[in-house]
Write a structure and sequence with these properties.
2 copies of one chain form a homodimer.
Chain A (H helix, E strand, L loop, with lengths): L10 H14 L12 H8 L3 H13 L3 E4 L5 E4 L4 H18 L4 H22 L2 H15 L5 H17 L4 H13 L1 H4 L6 H20 L2 H29 L1
Antiparallel strand pairs in A: 1-2
Helix pairs in contact in A: 1-3, 2-3, 4-8, 5-7, 5-8, 5-10, 5-11, 6-7, 6-10, 7-8, 10-11
The first copy, chain A, binds a DNA duplex through helix 3.
DNA sequence: CATTTTTCATTTGTCAGACAATTAAAAGTC
DNA sequence: GACTTTTAATTGTCTGACAAATGAAAAATG
């Protein structure tokens, strides 16, 4: 009966939590300097290695950064969108691969999120976003493209679509969903015909974005989702047939 | 001229990266046991404290868990949706608070993501989700409700809406967006009239979900977004007036 | 023999003290 | 005043040790 809340965590975990709370609650502002390791060890009544373990935990979450030398120390890190991206991608990737999320579920989520962005992108995309989308479509039609390169181009296309919405929070959220799915997408072997089908749908979506027609873009995304799900189904059933 | 890639990171960071790569690439499967700290120290030619700092970094990202005692050690963690939730919420919260994302941007992202879920929720929501939504609406109409409690109820309502889509990947993605916005939402002081307006819109959305009408639900969400943006604008302009 | 208790080896958690490496500021020098 | 040297502060790393937890083997017990 020792479960529930009665488990005293590691000292280093406790200390990390205490400092993290201070950061999240705003008691410690960005770029503020934490006390030195020796002072922290004093304050928390633990040894320096224990304090260091706590600080490394925080560093792993990009909550602090450290600097050596006089007037060095640990500083509250102003987390960047890039930091957040990469963390989200690692987490999402592991979540998908280790929790055996079905391709269907992941795919549905991805396209639902993209449909959330498309209308905004149709209204606000810059010329550069549209140019990227067109360029990737051309690349997708090129012959002698490996399956992986095709997937990468696919990601680039969708990324441009999402970034066109000009909302960094959306871009950040989508990065995880789209990039984490790439390993799953790589399972699919693309035939020349399915590639042309996808590129054509991309073309329809790009046209809609160019015309500022969000609804049409969403219709294209829905068709693309159906197409992707069909391809995945074929691969899976073929694999079952083999085995 | 020592910048660029030429900066050798901490040993503990290098080791953490090496192990993380092994996990992400699938060389280390879930629940696999890592070598003991002493063995790792040997393999990497470093001392045990350094290895421990590396392991704590990984533990902070829920990539491993440790267990004491004989046949204990560090094990590759099968990351749960719950782990991912909480990580995403911390990251998103900090991102919003420290990068000075405007209320407008965050709000737009949040409602765009919710509109992505609503049609799915309309098609698949269970009775429990609908019941939760109705219950929260009743609560929101109750008198003597603090602003914070009103916000919490708001989150619960939207959470039920999202969970109704029955797609754990979407729920996970949305958790960050919705919960991270709560501090921003708490800035708003809700008058009796604005509360009734929000509750009424919630009612419309719940009706649409009950009727299985995704488009109507999205229309309701769009109106709610407008309403929320207006409230925030009022608060901000009032604050400017005060100062 | 079966079962319970005890012992024990393994492994993580924590501590203390030391030295190296880095770096900004202070002191010295021209 | 501009430049160089020294110094002190701080993180990074190592060594060695002990405590605490824990599962497994060994011993005791019926």
């Amino acid at each position: 009966m020792k479960n529930a809340t009665a488990r005293p965590a590691d000292l280093s975990a406790q200390i990390a939590t205490a400092i993290r709370d201070a950061i999240v609650s705003g008691d410690l502002l960005a770029d503020a300097r934490l006390p030195s390791e020796a002072e922290l060890a004093d304050q928390f009544q633990v040894s320096r290695p224990t304090v260091r373990e706590a600080l490394k935990r925080l560093a792993a979450q990009s909550l602090i950064r450290t600097q050596r030398g006089a007037s060095g120390g640990a500083f509250v890190n102003r987390i960047t969108f890039e930091d957040a991206y990469s963390q989200q991608i690692t987490t999402s990737t592991l979540l998908l691969s280790m929790n055996a999320v079905s391709f269907e579920t992941a795919c549905e989520a991805r396209f639902a999120l993209e449909r959330a962005c498309a209308p905004l992108s149709a209204a606000r995309r810059g010329a550069a976003h549209l140019a990227t989308m067109r360029r990737e479509i051309r690349r997708q039609r090129g012959p002698s493209l490996t399956d992986e390169a095709f997937c990468a181009s696919d990601v680039a296309f969708h990324r441009a679509l999402v970034d066109g919405a000009a909302n960094p929070v959306l871009s950040y959220q989508l990065a995880g969903a789209v990039e984490a799915m790439q390993p799953l997408m790589n399972m699919i072997t693309y035939t020349a015909r399915s590639r042309e089908g996808i590129a054509a749908l991309h073309g329809r979506i790009a046209d809609a974005i160019e015309a500022g027609d969000g609804a049409a873009a969403n219709a294209g995304l829905s068709d693309l989702e159906r197409e992707t799900q069909n391809l995945a189904r074929d691969v899976l059933s073929a694999r079952r047939g083999d085995a």
